Amino acid sequence: MYIYFFETLLYLSFAFTGGYICLLFVPDRSKPAIKYPVDLFQYAILGIPLFSFMSIIRTTIVLSDFAENMSFVQILLIVLKDYNYGNAWIWNLIICTVMYMITVLSGFQHKWTKWLLAITWICSILAHGWASHPTGFSATWGFLSQSIHVAAVSIWLGTLLLAAWFTRGELRWNAFIRWFTPLSIVSMALIIAAGLVMMSLIVDGYINSWGINYGEALLLKHLVFLPLLLLGFMNGFLAKLTNNGKDERKLLWWLRLETFVALAVLIITAFMGVQEPPHEDEFELPTPSPLFKRLHGQMQTLDLQWSWGFAPLAMIALGLIALAMLIPLYKREKRGLFITSMLMGILLPFLGILLSVK
To answer: What's phi and psi for 206, nearest 5 deg?
Structure first.
């Protein structure tokens, strides 16, 4: 269970550093009056190798069961030397140490500091992509899709986190949204495109994957992504249309809610990162998840097909209605009902879809 926690913190570290560096390139007049937490930025830099090291430890513990005659340190050195993600971790440790030293030595006083930080941050993202699941299936497309996916999420979410939680003055909404909305659109397009490439590499049959932990988490992630897109659209366009960004206190509340939904996506992604991906070998000896067993009982095979019934269709329909209610609830500032409808729009279709396959 602990590994999910550290994986989530790893993604948050990438996001915080990415957003922080992105805002260094934006003039003060075009962004919120953010009180930059330099110490937190430095901790996030150090958090990248620290939190990613937990996966190295986990692999070492697993391998130690098969090499009882070797010490823990010997196995750890083998993982660091002979495994791709071990090599990638060493590179990330070096890169993040350089990033940290740049922040300490330059103190952000020089114009070239932001460029050095941007270059080293991109190198850190590439090192992470090199060690990912998709790269194991395709050295080129897996590496590129994972790197682009993490970079796009980090820049978009990191900027959003800083604006939502560290604004200590004027929000400058109209100026901020003028560049952040196009950035969000491009980021979302890259996230979706890279995600589809990764899914084509890893998932051998999307419907079949719903019978195991990885596939169920992937389905849930896609469903959570829908209200996240809606909330981003409403914060970017509807807020501007309804009050022209004047009520900054209300806008900050909605931006913070958007960060919580994004955090849910990160947690699900962290869970997926330590699950066995549903590739071909997985389905030679299928192992249904506990949730799928609870919904369907013991299954002999995971060669799943659609099997529609009234109850699953009703659940999916109610979920879609709940999602459709988000825009009017947003306009009327019905925060409690908005959160309730959002949860219904995620959980009801999730359970309905799982009940519709046998």
So the answer is: -60, -45
pTM (predicted TM-score): 0.92
3-state secondary structure of 76: helix
Q: What is d(CA 94, CA 75) in angstroms, rounded to the nearest whole number?
A: 21
| H or E stretch covering 286 | none
Other Cβ atoms less than 10 A from the Cβ of 26: the count is 16
Tokens (6 digits) for 70: 């070797």
Cβ atoms within 10 Å of 110's Cβ, excluding its own: 12
Task: Write out the chain's pLDDT in tens, 358 residues.
Answer: 678 889 999 999 999 999 999 999 999 899 999 988 889 999 999 999 999 999 899 888 888 878 778 888 898 998 898 888 889 999 999 999 999 999 988 776 678 889 999 999 999 999 999 988 888 888 899 999 999 999 999 999 999 999 999 998 888 888 998 999 999 999 999 999 999 999 988 887 788 888 888 889 999 999 999 999 999 999 888 876 666 656 778 889 999 999 999 999 999 998 887 787 765 454 455 578 888 888 887 766 667 778 888 899 999 999 999 999 999 999 888 999 999 999 999 999 999 999 998 7
Count other C-beta atoms under 10 Å from residue 346's C-beta.
22
How far is 193 from 148, CA to CA, in rounded Å?
9
Asked if 200 contacts 146 with a C-beta cutoff of 8 angstroms, the reply is no
DSSP string, 255-285: HHHHHHHHHHHHHHHHHHHTSPP--GGGGGS
Q: Helix, strand, or coil here: 233?
A: helix
- Residues 6+ positions from 14 with CB-CB distance below 8 Å: 48, 124, 125, 128, 150, 153, 154, 158
Helix (H, G, I), strand (E, B) or coil at 34: strand
